[in-house]
Design brief:
Length: 329
């Protein structure tokens, strides 16, 4: 014991640091890679230009490790925060101020569940679009000669336009309706067709089908076009079971194309009836005004004082005659 060197506290700290450096250095010799799966977190700020620091999280337990990945690796994988990935890399250690921290140097990053990642991204994009939309209700137009844009399938086998027109009835002349056939599987063409609307009413219809065919009516382009359209918007898509987000962005959602035609017919008839009732009331008011005006310009009768004086004179004459007649006869 007497031969052991006597160290100062600083020397002990230096010895401990040297040992930690030695331990961390041994991880550099660990040559076999590991594959770790989890969910990417947000990039953490750091002073290393070569690496990004971001957590890899176990979504079930919440445990995370720190990844060090270059910008090129992340760009090549086309991943972002919230994606599920599988990371191949080396386990390393970092010694900083007496603390040893785990490091995981990423060599490759791959989507771990591409199908789920695609769905999650689509849902996130859709939610972002819905949050950014400014929607307001557009009432049925009060114009008696309103004009209508009918967007329907361009397929020659589709009879939805005829179904709508039969439901509409004969109250609408053909020159008031602009028919625009488009491909009902292409969200870009549907959105462009909605964007051409300068009419008072826009009707978007298509027949029934598999639920996968109606995903186009939840595409951000179509939803944004419907939300910004200034016409009275009517949707007649599929059947009762075919429900889409587009229903939330129109002024009336019909269950079928024919039902959309019935709705326009019903609203037009109600508007015509209201206008006829208003016209009849206006005519009655005008007639009453004319009658009151004719009475106001009629020649006035004798004043009350004049009528009383004349009555007294007649009464006096009557009394005088009544007194004189018995004297002569």
């Amino acid at each position: 014991m007497a031969s052991l060197p006597v160290l100062s506290p600083l020397q002990v700290q230096d010895l401990f640091t040297a040992r930690l450096d030695e331990i961390c250095g041994q991880f550099e010799e660990w040559g076999f890679p590991l594959v770790v799966a989890g969910q990417l977190g947000d990039v953490a700020p750091n002073a290393y230009r070569k690496y990004y620091q971001l957590p890899l999280i176990d979504p079930q337990l919440g445990t995370s490790i720190a990844l060090e990945a270059t910008k090129s690796i992340l760009a090549a994988a086309d991943v972002r925060a919230g994606d599920y990935v599988r990371v191949t890399g080396f386990l390393r250690a970092r010694h900083l101020r007496g603390q040893v921290a785990l490091r995981f140097e990423a060599l490759a990053v791959d989507p771990y569940d591409p199908g789920r990642q695609k769905v999650d991204r689509a849902e996130k994009s859709l939610l972002d679009v819905l949050r950014g939309l400014s929607w307001e209700f557009h009432p049925y137009p009060e114009r008696r000669e309103a004009r209508l844009l009918l967007i329907h399938s361009a397929s020659s086998n589709a009879l939805v336009a005829e179904d709508f027109l039969q439901g509409l009835g004969g109250g609408w002349r053909s020159e008031r309706i602009r028919s625009l056939p488009v491909a009902m599987t292409d969200p870009h063409r549907i959105a462009d067709a909605v964007g051409t609307c300068r009419e008072d009413i826009i009707v978007l219809i298509r027949g029934g089908g598999d639920m996968s065919e109606f995903a186009v009516f939840e595409h951000p382009l179509v939803l944004e076009a419907l939300a910004t359209c200034q016409a009275h918007r009517v949707l007649g898509v599929g059947h009762t079971a075919n429900r889409t987000l587009a229903e939330r962005l129109v002024d009336h959602a019909a269950t079928t194309p024919a039902d959309a035609g019935h709705y326009i017919r019903r609203m037009s008839g109600r508007l015509w009836q209201q206008q006829e009732e208003a016209r009849a009331q206006q005519e009655e008011i005008v007639a009453l005004r004319e009658s009151a005006a004719s009475m106001a310009v009629a020649p006035p009768g004798p004043a009350l004082g004049t009528r009383l004086r004349n009555a007294l004179i007649l009464l006096g004459l009557g009394l005088l005659l009544g007194w004189l007649l018995p004297r002569f006869f």
